From TrEMBL:
The lineage of its organism: Bacteria, Pseudomonadati, Pseudomonadota, Alphaproteobacteria, Hyphomicrobiales. Its EC number is 6.1.1.21. Coiled coil: none annotated. This is Histidine--tRNA ligase. One of its GO terms (molecular function) is ATP binding. HAMAP family: His_tRNA_synth. It is an enzyme of class 6 (ligase). L-histidine binds at residues 90-92, 120, 134, 138, 300, 304-305. It is found in: Cytoplasm. Homodimer. Residues 1-379 form the Aminoacyl-transfer RNA synthetases class-II family profile domain. Its main location: cytoplasm. It catalyses: tRNA(His) + L-histidine + ATP = L-histidyl-tRNA(His) + AMP + diphosphate + H(+).
């Protein structure tokens, strides 16, 4: 007896971890966000540039391990000429390559912005994705702190353009030279110990001054009992660090404290002077400490920052869909990276820039109710009443589209009108067009207002009353179709995009 042929196995549809599919509402919200950010960036004189999602791995400037496949932190593959190529992990390193390659033809300073997805080869987790969107703006070729001050002001303006009011965000500014000055004052030569100090400083917002002091000393035990080993600083050194990073409202007082503690550090004094200049410039332009403030606890993670660094923090607390408290924290940041373009040029090329984490900020704005996440209205649906008159119905669709109205012909099985109306409902269509043989003989069409119909259906309990009133459905001449559909759309303020 012959064996039955095995059924072919179905391929399991599955999304890789750390990635997400996005529906029309999310895409529309992103589009609206990006256009608001773009408008602010262009107001400041920045112009667009677009670089590919892939670069030669060495151009990204990532400190990759020496191994056969350099994919630590980045997604990499080997080209047919055996050169390593990686997906970009940010938008700054590709810009540095672009500027270096086109250096002689670009105006200096070169002011540009770019938006796009970046990719991180990291372990995914809550809020940590392998692909997410950023929107950057950078000034290359200017060493003045005015360039940094301008970026901070633009960051503040962008938050407000997105509907985040003053008092709900703050742009925090520090200088890596101040932190280098702290290292000078402490006399720390060991990179590992200094990294522990930096990590402790970076936790000020979350743990408070007392928690940071523990991490700067012997270590800290958290609520679960887990112990984190500290940097092992002496009590006097801990006082020095905390006095520099402690947050105070008065910028002059903060700068004076830095001056006092780092008076013997040349690099520390340079950082203090640059912060003082940024402070002076933003205040002269009307940006108070409620919008931009000096905060020496800002660390920023990337190793290429060489001067001022900035971070945009949302100050709002809210709750997620399960009622759990959510604090958003940083939604963007950047700083000065005077060494990145220089890697390609062999000469100093000053640069400063800022990046908004669009995906992260969109999640925050959605939770805060500042983004419209309702499904967008679908097209007007022209139904097929008589199969042999598809050309007539297609002509109606064409007339609506010519008038700038989104419209589509029902392309499913036209046997059941009820199914066509269900389809229009699922498409969130504002109205449908119906024309049977009787209407055609009279030169008329039926317009069914689905939005008004849904309101009426909710208000009318009796099916008989529904049938008698026939709400939200009316006849008009074929010649008036476009005008009558426009009336329905205007009545409900329907717009697309």
């Amino acid at each position: 007896m012959a064996e039955k042929p095995k059924k072919p196995q179905k391929l399991k549809a599955r999304l890789p971890r750390g990635l997400e599919d996005r529906d029309p509402a999310a895409i529309r919200a992103t589009r609206e966000m990006v256009e608001k950010i773009r408008a602010v960036y262009e107001l400041y004189g920045f112009e667009p540039v677009e670089t590919p999602a892939m670069e030669y791995t060495d151009a990204l400037g990532k400190f990759l391990p020496d191994q056969d496949r350099p994919n630590e932190g980045v997604f990499s593959f080997q080209d047919d000429d055996e050169q390593w190529i990686s997906l970009r992990y940010d938008l700054t390193a590709p810009l540095a390559r672009y500027v270096a390659e086109n250096f002689d033809t670009l105006p200096k300073p070169y002011r540009s912005y770019r938006a796009g997805y970046v990719f991180r080869n990291e372990k995914p987790g809550p809020g940590r994705f392998r692909q997410f969107m950023q929107f950057d703006a950078d000034t290359v070729g200017s060493a003045t702190p005015a360039a940094d001050a301008e970026i901070c002001m633009m960051a503040a303006d962008t938050m407000e353009a997105l509907g985040i009011q003053r008092g709900q965000y703050v742009v925090k500014v520090n200088n890596r030279k101040v932190l280098d000055g702290v290292r000078d004052a402490l006399g720390i030569a060991d990179d590992g110990q200094w990294l522990t100090v930096m990590r402790a400083i970076d936790k000020l917002d979350r743990l408070g001054l007392a928690g940071v002091q523990q991490l700067l000393g012997e270590g800290r035990k958290d609520e679960s009992g887990d112990f984190t080993k500290g940097a092992g600083l002496k009590p006097a050194d801990i006082i020095l660090v905390t006095s520099v990073i402690e947050q105070v409202d008065d910028a002059d007082e903060k700068i004076a404290q830095i001056d006092l503690r780092l008076r013997d550090s040349k690099v520390g004094q340079q950082g203090r002077e640059e912060l003082e200049e940024i402070e002076r410039l933003v205040r002269a332009s009307g940006y108070g400490p409620d919008r931009i403030k000096i905060d020496p606890s800002v660390v920023r993670g990337l190793e290429y920052y060489t001067g001022p660094v900035y971070e945009v923090e949302l100050l709002l607390d809210t709750k997620d869909e399960k009622g759990r408290p959510v604090r958003f924290g940083s939604v963007g940041g950047g700083g000065r990276y005077d060494g990145l373009v220089s890697r390609f040029r062999g000469e100093p090329v000053p640069a400063t820039g800022f990046s908004i984490g669009v995906s992260r900020l969109q999640a925050a704005l959605t939770l805060l109710g500042k983004l419209d996440t309702r499904p967008e209205f679908g097209p007007v649906v022209v139904t097929v009443f008589d199969r042999d008159r598809v050309a007539d119905y297609q002509k109606m669709v064409a007339s609506l589209r010519t008038a700038g109205i989104r419209a589509e012909l029902y392309l499913g099985n036209p046997k059941n009108m009820g199914n066509q109306l269900k389809y229009a409902d699922r498409r969130n269509s504002p109205c449908v067009i119906i024309q049977g043989s009787d209407e055609k003989a009279r030169g008329e069409v039926q317009v069914k207002d689905l939005i008004e119909g849904a309101k009426a259906a909710a208000a009318i309990a009796s099916n008989q009353e529904w049938r008698e009133s026939r709400p939200a459905q009316f006849s008009c001449s074929e010649a008036d179709l476009v005008a009558k559909v426009r009336e329905v759309l205007g009545r409900h303020d329907v717009s697309w995009g």
